[in-house]
Give the backbone structure.
Amino acid sequence: MTAAIAIIGGGFSGALLAIRLAHAAPERVVHLIERRRRAGVGLAYGACEPHHLLNVPTSRMKVGLEPGFTDWLHARTGFRPPEGIAPADAFAPRALFGAYMEERLAETHSVRRIRGDAVRIARAERQVLLADGRAVDADIVVLATGNRAPPPLRFAHDSANAAPDPWSHDAFDDLHADAPVLFVGVGLTMVDIALSLAARGHRGEMIALSRHGLLPTRHEAGGSWPAFLSTVDATSVRGAMALVRREIAKAVAAGVPWRRVIDAARPEVARVWRAWPQSERARFLRHARIYWDVHRHRMAPQIADALDALLASGQLRVVAGRLAGSDADGVRVRLRGGGEEILRVARVFNCTGPASDFSSTEEPLYADLKRNGLVRTDALMLGIETEESALVDASGAVSDWLFALGPLTRPAYWEVTAVPEIRAQVDALSQRLLQHAPLPATDLADVFGDLGAGI
Ligand SMILES: Cc1cc2nc3c(=O)[nH]c(=O)nc-3n(C[C@H](O)[C@H](O)[C@H](O)COP(=O)(O)OP(=O)(O)OC[C@H]3O[C@@H](n4cnc5c(N)ncnc54)[C@H](O)[C@@H]3O)c2cc1C
């Protein structure tokens, strides 16, 4: 009998793996366990509204399924790109990519979908246990639990005023349209939430706070740039950043948008990250991450226009500083340039992004995995430790039955959060699971590197 596979988490990563396995081996038992009603969409493509667009053109959302996303968009939805933009270059609503994945999953009949909350893995019984007491047979388990709620903000704020998870369905409840609000975090989550408020007719001031006050940058099409980053030249963060800056200067001088330099660097990031010692990775997170993030995670032009309009009207204000606390007067902010400001706001949205630290998690599944020594959290608090998607346990041994996908595996690759990388990871893992191969033939970081501009 072939081994049954249970995938915990039915977002993009888990759904794509389930579909891949089912297409290649329909006779295999593949359980897809998802706590939410909808599978295939996850946070990125499920908890969004029509004005939330993909942050890459549709052509970058290829996942190796038929029909392709761009063709499906054209044939099955009313989506039409703006005048003069080719469908492959357009930025479609994220919800449509969710609907696309949901449809692909629904037509893959051999995947056994289970709605439930996985809370324990009972290895001796070869079962995944769900919160309601059900048990799912599994010889192989894949963790695809993805993006978690943001880490709690480190200050006591009146809980009635706080939106600790800006994606939760009640985040906007009882908020008066004229009330001022605070976003803590200035990345793409903040952009989504600001646009959601604007779409609801919010008129109150929106203040966006982050340590540096740097907003995400906008996409710009055109041009190309050759690969230039390598593990040989980028042995330190300082060296890597200098190299990127130098290439950007050359590109701009040649009339090529700097975005192409970042795009050219991206396939190499996992290799460079793997080659760095822990101290260098920590240095990157401390000093360079913010600059990488704002240039790497970009906004669709329409989204950037909408944000610019909010800034130009004065409704949205960006403040560089740190939360210092809160009291009856409001939220106290220590400003980057010196001094303090007290913000009187009706709601504080935690837009700091998904939590990645598992070291003190109370989530039952991970608390149980840790209790049993099956999982090792990384020192940089980016996720869980894996070796070619296989979990590394507390003793450092690499599992042959427990695997992980997507943002959870960030400690190994850094860049493994977007569709192209996750797709490559899913492909490698599905081949390995189907061939019962003890180890993959190629390092996943090399696979990312070989994808070049396809990433
Ligand atoms: C807001 C946002 C926008 C993005 N936009 C883009 C984009 O435009 N292009 C791009 O390439 N990438 C984008 N990304 C990145 C990327 O596509 C996602 O991070 C990716 O979808 C991750 O998928 P996932 O399945 O690993 O995680 P998730 O989507 O978070 O899915 C995990 C699933 O696991 C379930 N789950 C968790 N724990 C349990 C449990 N114990 N039992 C049962 N179920 C459980 C959750 O309910 C959830 O459905 C975006 C990310 C975010 C957050």
Observations:
- The chain has a mean pLDDT of 94.
- The pocket of flavin-adenine dinucleotide is lined by residues 8-14, 33-36, 42-44, 54-56, 94, 117-118, 144-147, 365, 406-407, 417-419 (CB under 6 Å).
- The first helix runs from residue 12 to 24.
- The chain has three domains: 5-148+355-454, 159-217+298-350, 237-296.
